Here is the input.
Amino acid sequence: MLSRRLIRIKAFKTLFAYEGSGSDSVNAAQTMLIESCDKTRDLYYFLLNISQALVNVATDRIAAGMRKFHPTEAEAHPNLKFVHNRFAQLLSDDPEFGRTCQKRGLVWGEYEPFVRHVYNSIITKDYYLNYMNSGEDSFEEDCRLFSCIFEDEFEDNEELLSILEDQSILWIDDVAFALNVIIAGIAETARKHRIVHPNTFLKEDDKEFAVRLLTESILHYDEYFTLLSEHLDNWKSDRLVATDAALIVMGVTEAVVFPTIPVKVTINEYVEIAKYYSTPNSRIFVNGILDRIIQEKVREGEVVKQGRGLYEQ
Here is the structure.
């Protein structure tokens, strides 16, 4: 599930927290990192589980309309296409999905007002109206509707962000990524007629990459920070932005420890992370210092890459 970039971001955040806390427990930092990674998978399940909650709101609203003494024509003869949506039903019937959500508390019961707000928004949208009035009746169409819902309703939704912050502070930065995984998963479900249950890590060596990157960065932090300080021009180390220091230490660590990752990829990754998690000038600073230190370590034989083109800048 997790991309290598998101793994790097989570390792960077863990390293930054570890160095700021004064802790000396590497094991605790490793546990924190894996928990942070697993929380992204929880977010995937939590967001996806709103599908059935939305259908429940629609079902309750239809039932309330039909109980009226003088229902309108639409209330007396409601369009049941949404409440019979087969993608939502497949989620509801999937035992692994249900067990995971219940066991980890990934349910929407206490957030029913938000679910109603989302439903009220959905029913005004063209994609919903086209779906309800379409002559098509297929599982693929049912999946496409929920793909539109996840594309349109949740990113940059302040009410949702408030809910997620209450649930876990680790979720706030992962919303866009989780939504992209959900949308890709819905497309796969449409093809295979089964719910996607992603693992936290795409490959087993991704977990090893995460733990080793963090561990080696912790163990070599003082060494690489000293090296970083020696490369500062007209700048004292006590004025160095702490996030920049953590990113550079981690970038040097990655270059030294992982021989199959090209130098160019390593530098570009930490420059990109600096854009979002450090100061406006950090991108240029991290790029320059990281490049100089890595090239120095290449000359000294500490950075050794396997394969052609891995040194290309």
